[in-house]
Design brief:
With 371 residues, the chain is mainly β. The chain is 4% helix and 43% strand. It is globular. The longest helix has 9 residues.
Length: 371
């Protein structure tokens, strides 16, 4: 066979997702579904974590394992796939709702979406085989479009296992990166040698006029050293959500019968970088180090818009953070920068949960029923 001279680029590959009701958890991804394209920056291939083993056995005169010593099965495994996309108005909510498995909706256009973990609305472990309401439980089928016919792949019933939401002032955009997880690896649920782009359900855009979310905030406030919600100048802020989703059980085909979620916990961590100035320094009343030394939490508030979240694209983020370090870089070109890695915690009052751990409120033009 002669060498092929055709070379492919990342632009020849596409990744599409389709939200589905949890009642279809065990239903294989379909090759005639209208998958919605993710605007991925770098294309990743799925990583198959299959059950396998192999060791040298008796009745072997040599010292090398035999081919017959090897064992591998598609039953009982799991799939992961990394991604990075610029956050868009009609996409960010469904991604965040999926990783936290929480979502509430109000309004009639724009639609106001709330994803939260509070003392009065704690995160709940979803029943991934139950019926979805307001988009929860949220499950994606994934279509992987390859440049040649008969090479496409399908991943069934995936959930985002980890998600980082990074507001990078240098890049100017909010970027989302993370990992999809699926406990469906059998030949009937992880489908190869498919042709997805040659049928009527060719991949579509999530929005015909996508709007990327910028890395700016109209309001940026943080508690510091006994001072409530001081104004700050930030150079970057990121949040990472991890839910520890994992497959449970093994049906006749070897696929997951359900997913465990948030065991032992859902973890939200992050990093905040802000300018060293008169409000945030190392003197009494603004000492960023003192809260770390004292083990005090702080309320962080960020807003895009006027705080009412009544127009598409407006956003409110509020969370209670517990700093895990305080770092100072006096060598930044724009001036000295303080960086605070943190984890999000549930505040308490008299030992009982009270108030907001994390809240994300966003307005867009898409209902959960349209996911």
């Amino acid at each position: 066979m002669a060498v092929s001279g055709k070379v492919y680029s990342k632009s020849d590959f596409s990744i599409g997702i389709k939200n589905k009701n949890a009642t279809a958890f065990e239903t294989a991804a379909a090759n005639d579904t209208a998958y919605e394209l993710l605007p991925v920056i770098n294309v990743s291939a799925p990583v198959l974590n299959l059950v396998e083993s192999g060791e040298i056995r008796s009745n072997n005169a040599g010292m090398i394992e035999l081919d017959t010593d090897q064992f591998r099965t598609q039953k009982g495994g799991f799939i992961t796939m990394d991604f990075e996309v610029p956050a868009e108005q009609d996409m960010i909510v469904r991604m965040l709702a999926n990783v936290l498995q929480d979502h509430g909706e109000s309004g009639s256009g724009p639609y106001v979406h709330t994803i939260q973990a509070t003392s009065s609305a704690a995160l709940a472990r979803p029943d991934f085989t139950g019926s979805s309401s307001s988009g929860i439980p949220s499950i994606f089928d994934i279509g992987l479009y390859y440049p040649e016919t008969g090479q496409d792949k399908l991943i069934t019933s995936a959930v985002i296992q980890s998600l980082t939401m990074n507001f990078d002032m240098t890049d100017g955009r909010c970027l989302l990166s993370g990992t999809f997880y699926s406990g469906m690896t059998s030949a009937s649920k992880f489908l190869v040698e498919q042709t997805l782009s040659a049928n009527s359900a060719a991949p579509t855009l999530m929005s015909t006029s996508p709007t990327q979310i910028e890395s700016y905030f109209d309001l940026k406030k943080l508690d510091v050293d006994g001072t409530s919600l001081a104004d700050m100048v930030i150079t970057g802020v990121s949040f990472t959500f991890e839910n520890n989703v994992a497959r449970v059980g093994r049906d006749a085909a070897g696929d997951a019968e359900a997913y465990a979620f948030g065991i032992p916990s859902v973890n939200i961590t992050g990093e905040l970088s802000l300018m060293y100035d008169a409000n945030f320094d190392f003197a009494s009343g603004g000492n960023v180090l003192q809260d770390f030394l004292s083990g005090n939490t702080a309320t962080l508030k960020l807003q895009q818009g006027n705080g009412t979240v009544d127009a598409a694209g407006e956003m409110n983020i509020e969370c209670e953070i517990y700093s895990t370090a305080v770092n100072l870089d006096p060598n930044e070109d724009a001036g000295a920068v303080i960086t605070i890695p943190f984890k999000v915690v549930q505040p308490t009052s008299s030992g009982a949960a009270s108030g907001t751990a994390f809240s994300f409120v966003y307005a867009d033009s898409t209902q959960a029923s349209g996911w």
